[in-house]
Design a protein that fits this description.
Helix 1 (about 35-65) packs antiparallel against helix 2 (about 70-100). The protein is built from 3 helices and no strands. It is mostly helical. It has helices at about 35-65, 70-100, 110-140. Helices cover about 65% and strands about 0% of the residues.
């Protein structure tokens, strides 16, 4: 246990065995979601939860024959549309984030290919510029020295 000593507590004070920690931290399997995607996901979860509660209330009002049943059913339909939009918003936000910032973990990433092409183009432009400077420095471009 990397430098963590078990301290006897309560009833275990006189016992000989070491006390195990309550939890062991493990590294995350997947990286954390980007901020815009996480924000959209939280928004969608709240909207979906409210929609489900509204649907349950509408169902219970319908069973009891309450006057509130019809307005609740109408608002549940509207909330369902809103919840669908919220879930689609998460999906679209995730796709936009991946497209703009690249999917580093995937070898077939479009963003990685574009970066590689841009790097190659810059490298060839620098090489061409360097060659043009060397040729224009001595005037002829044929001689390497003026001797």
């Amino acid at each position: 246990m990397r430098g963590i000593e078990a301290v006897p507590v309560g009833r275990n004070v006189g016992m000989s065995g070491e006390q195990q920690p309550l939890w062991v931290e493990e590294p995350a399997v997947r990286p954390r979601l980007p901020d815009p995607v996480r924000t959209a996901a939280v928004r969608a979860v709240i909207i979906v939860a409210a929609t489900l509660m509204q649907a349950v209330v509408a169902f219970l009002c319908t069973l009891t024959g309450s006057w509130l049943a019809f307005p609740m059913v109408l608002s549940s339909v509207g909330s369902t549309v809103l919840a669908t939009w919220g879930v689609l918003d998460v999906w679209v936000t995730r796709q936009v984030w991946n497209q703009r910032n690249g999917v580093v973990s995937m070898p077939s990433s479009t963003a990685r290919k574009l970066r590689k092409e841009r790097r190659r183009a810059r490298r060839t432009a620098r090489t061409a510029e360097r060659g043009a400077r060397i040729r224009s420095a001595d005037g002829s471009g044929q001689r390497l020295s003026r001797a």
